[in-house]
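Homework help board

Subject: predicted structure for assignment chain

Our instructor gave us this sequence and asked us to write out the predicted structure in token form, then describe one feature. I got the tokens but I'm not sure how to describe them. Can anyone check?
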Amino acid sequence: MGDRATLLETGRFEQPHAGNVADATASADFADRVEGLGGEHDAEETAGAEARHRGAADRGDTSSMSVLGALLLRRGDLDGAEPYLRAATADGDRAAANNLGVLLHQRGYPEEAAGWWRIAAVAGSAAAAHALGRHFRERGDEPAAEYWLRQSAEQGHALGAYALSDLLEHRGEEGVERWLRTAAEQGHREAAYRLARALEARAAEGGPRTAGTAALAGTGRHALADRPGADPRSTAPDTRTGRKGPGGALGRGPAPDGSPDPAGRADPSVSGPEPAAAARAAAALLDEAAQWYRQAAARGHRRAALHLGVILERRGRLKEAGRWYLTAAKDGEPRAACALGFLLRDAGDEESAAVWWLRAAQDGDGNAANALGALHAARGEAQTAERWYRAAMDAGDVNGAYNLGLLCASQDRTAQAEQWYRRAAYAGHREAANALAVLLLQAGDHVGAEPWFSKAAEAGSVDAAFNLGILHAGRDDDRTALDWYERAAAAGHTEAALQVGIARLKDGDEHEAERHLRCAAGGGSAEAAFRLAALLDARRPPPGAPALGEPVAAKSECEEWYERAARQGHRRAQVRVGMLAAARGDGAEAARWYREAAEAGSRSGAFNLGLLLAREGSEREASLWWTRAARAGHGRAALRLALLAARRGELAEGQRWCARAVELGPAEVAERAGRLREALLQELTA
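My token output:
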């Protein structure tokens, strides 16, 4: 987990959490004294330095004895190093005391090593204080460990600061972020990574906390929030109606902790200055996190490269994100290979995406295995898709079982689909629980479906909450249905917001109705847009006659919502937009919308189109649309056809349409049609 280095490489050891103390032993003194003798120098130069120091050491030079002992220790010659280090230590060289502790620890004498580290630490060696602190932590003496690690950290020792932050995090105490920052500022890549994770977690929570952040975000698969539901751009199922996409549900790839709902829903009611300030604070935290990820990634930290890629991808900087994903993937990070695959797929390069998914899946990434399964399912290769979904399941990704359920359901293998949905649902997959409930409901098992809907809804499935609303509404339990609709609407469910809006309209609460209808309309509901427009329309004062030379007024908000619904194919909205256009004198625009509505099956659209055509002299075409409207149950259209037949002298035809108009109504139409029928009857019998 840490920047695990050997003494031979850097002159210091560093320990990951709960690692061996020898790996944590860091000697800043040693590094200073042998500066320039690291891996950058060739063997000949090192041999020359060793010969010079050996000569001086043999003449009793304490400094040379310390450096020579360090050189031999670095080379692994413990027997050769020990006498020189002991001699230098006897002369009071603290670097030699620290390095003697390293040597003794390597030989299996931790207590004696600790004694020499204590001597060096008391003499001011930050590296020895760090090693001693790690020694005490391994033995469970946390107060002593904290004391020595704090001594090391306060002297500016990066490894001491990192180890202290690790101890404080373990104990849930404040100061974690402060010491991580201290270590990171000195180039400690693991500290930079963990500091970035802490900042990213705070950003996801919506803003800053106190400087002493006590706990850091995890680094496992789900800490990366690998989107356990469906990729919003994938072919995920619409479990409200039981429709299924051929590809299954994909985890889209890593996203920062606390990412929004997989379907991209947000609570549209959140607004105002405070959320805006919190959003700015969160953005600043995320910017800082990206800087620390970049620093750690530049030093070869592959998970930092992965997280940096995620942040860049979310910001639309796809090329740069791809470069960091590629860096991490080449270093063996399967999640980065998987994320790179999604990036390539979104760019239209499915073949290259499959290569990286294959690499990640072979390294045990269940998300990549699911992606391969979805890819093959979309190509109609069901057997290969099933194999990869099973591989995902074997890798511990519950989405594998869910996707197997989707695959079986798409092939009408209902029994097997139910089996896989159950397996995923029992493992805690909320959308699988919802899909299972839908399956049971379709089979007529209402009793068996409801508990699964409830389980899914309680686990956070927005669709399941909406489905429970439908279930209770079907039982005429409107109060409970509204509770579930409100719960789903609060999570951004468009159709649920529409149902809440309708319920509030019935209760006469126009303010709440408008708020929910706006949410639903903004989420793409044509019905909500129409109802919102109608609500706003009812509040408008009736327009007066325009004055001569008065400019045409701009479209009102209600007209804009009508048009939005009309463009989405809402027939009543299309008729209303046509009426508004006709009122403005724009016959061509009115005819366009009436015709669109009529061709989609709107009898009012057909009737109004007929009126428009009749006014323009196209009575023959008008009669065709009135006939279509009358046959669909439009009483006024039937009356118009009766009048038309009467004018043409087709009395029997006129009587037939009069009878139809009387039957269809409304009352005033039925009355007029009755009088016309009597007149036609008198004409026939005259």
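Reply (TA_rk): Your tokens look well-formed. For the description, you could write something like this. The chain is about 70% helix and 0% strand. That's the kind of observation they're looking for.
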